[in-house]
Each structure stands twice: as C-alpha cells, then as structure tokens.
Amino acid sequence: MTPELQQIVYLSFILMLAIFLGFELIAKVPATLHTPLMSGSNAISGITLVGALVSAGAEQTAMATWLGAAAVTLATINVVGGYLVTDRMLAMFKKKSSGGAQ
To answer: How far apart are CA 43 and CA 3, in angstroms?
Structure first.
C-alpha cells in the first residue's frame, strides 16, 4: 500500500469513528440538556470561525484563501443559526404573562 493510500484509509477511519461516537453521545443526551449542549457547540463553532479567519487570511494559495472564505461563511451561518435556535428554545421556558386584570 502506498503512503498516500494509507493516510486516506487512516483519516477515513478517524472520520467514521468520530461520526459514530458523535451520534452515540448525542443520542444519549436527555431532552432537557439539549439547550445547554447547543450553547456549548456554538462556542466550539466560534472557535472554528476564528480558525477559518486565520486560514482565509494566511494567503498561502488561492485555493486555500477560497476554502478559508467558504469556511468563514459556513461557520458564521452555523454560529448565528445556533444562537437563534438556542434563543428560541430558551423562550419556550419563560413564563407567559397573564392577560387578565391584576
């Protein structure tokens, strides 16, 4: 086996393992903990956004700059969308004011 093929197999194994473990961990989380989990994953996406900004600004090659810009766009959408979903979920737990006379 060539070293390139070995590296592809190795990285594919790591990707499959990460997908399996991620699915198993998220499936075991109770529904009441999904909102805090979403907030934590949004913080991780913010770190991804910083890495994407560094990648886009490194000016290594044109392809790296374009991929970095795409990563910035997707990470920004992920962070903003995640916080909007978290805010909407937290709004479900707020007390509603009564409409009657006080």
So the answer is: 36
